[in-house]
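Researcher: Next entry in the queue.
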Amino acid sequence: MTEDSPDRPLFDRPATVGADDNAHRTDPESTVLAEIGLAHLHPGIRHIALADDAVRLQAIRAKRWITHHPASRVLATLQEALDQPAADRMENLLLIAESGMGKTMLLRKFQRDHGLAFDAVIGMQPHPIVLTLMAEDPSEEAFFFQVLKAVGAPLDMSRRRHRMNLRETTFRLLRELGTRMLMIDEINSVLIGSARQQRQFLQLLRFLSNELQVTIVCAGVPEARFALLSDPQLRSRVADVALEPWTGGPELQDFVNRLVQGLPLRRPSPVDSVKLRRLLIERSGGITRSICRAIERAGATAIRNGQERIDLSGLDDAAVWRGITPDADRMGRLRPSALARIQP
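Model: Structure for this entry, 344 residues:
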C-alpha cells in the first residue's frame, strides 16, 4: 500500500508473501467473491487473508507504519520546521516521547518521505534530511563519526583524525548533500557525559545550526529535556513537541481500528468498546509498542485457534501481555492520566 491519508493505514512495506503465493489463490472471480466477506480489512491486506496460516502469520509479524492523528501532528510540526528559510538563527525542535512510543519510526518515516534519488549530474544522492543516532560518547569526534556514517561516507574508524579536520569534512559533506535538517535520535545519551562534556556538546549544536543554517531536531525520552534545555541560548531556539502516551479516547480507538484492519483475520473484530480501551491502557500504560504487540499476538492466536477475530477475552489473556508490560515505575507515572480520559 502506498497511499498515506488520514483514513487509511500506511505500512512501512506490505507484509511479505512467499514466492509461491499464487498457489494460495483462486481464479479472479472467486477471489472477488471471497473478498466480499473481507470488507472489514484494508483493501491492500485482503488478498493475504485468503492465503494459508503461515503466510498470514508472517504478515502479522511484518513491520508496518499505521498513520494516526498524534503522529500526524508531529509530522506536520517537522514539516513546518523543514520549510523555514535558511537563517542565522534557525528554530529547532525537541521531540519528547517515552520509550516505545514510536519516535524513531516517525523520524525514519519523515526522512523516507523526503528522500531523493541519486543525482547523476552531481554524482551523489542528496540528503535533505539526515537522521543519526546520538553517540554513546558525547564528544565532538564521536558525534561527527555518527553523522558521516549516517550519510554513507567511507570511514576508517581505526585512524585517528584531527578534530577540526573531522568537523570540516562533515560540514563540507552536509553542504554538498543539500542537508536542511539534521535529526539526532536518542539525544538523552548526552546525559552519560560529564557536565563539561554536556556543555561542550550543546555549544556544538548551536554552532552547527548557525554555521550550516540547518534545523536541528533532537529526539529522546523526557529526561533529555533537562540536558538539552539547560543551555539558555539553545533553550531560546528550541521548541518542544511531544508524542504523549495514549489515553482512552477516540484517537486510541481510531488507532486500534486501523491496526486491526491491517491484520489478515477473516472475521470482523469487535474492538470498539470502552472496556477494551481501558484494558489496553491498564496493561500498556499507553505505550504504542506494547499496544501493538498485544494486538498482534492476539491476532496470531486468533489465526492459530480458528477464531479469526480479536475480542476483549482474547486481549485479556495473560500470554498476550507476557514480557511487554511496562515496568512498575513507568506504569505508575503514566496510568493515572491515561485512565482519567477514557471516553465512551
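Model: The chain has two domains: 21-64+246-340, 69-243.
Researcher: Noted, moving on.
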